[in-house]
Amino acid sequence: MSFQQTFKALSDPTRREILTLLKGGPMAAGDVVAHFDSTGATISHHLSILKDAGLVDASRRGKFIYYELNLSVLEEIMAWIAELQGGDPS
Asked: In angstroms, rounded to a whole number, what is the distance separating the alpha carbons of residues 61 and 29?
């Protein structure tokens, strides 16, 4: 995971909205898709970008794929920003 890949993933408003949805806990891919007017393939592409950037994790449960936030990546970004500001990252 690189910051460049992470920030690129965060640059899209749909992907940021997906992260906001996942803040409430793990969701099946179909449930994520239901929140948008886009096609399932489009949202699947967004989920893939978020996963590749390390912002979400995916796990198969039966025949469904569930996505959830990976907070460790967000914590790394916040620590880096705190260092830039001269603050204590902890």
From this structure: 11
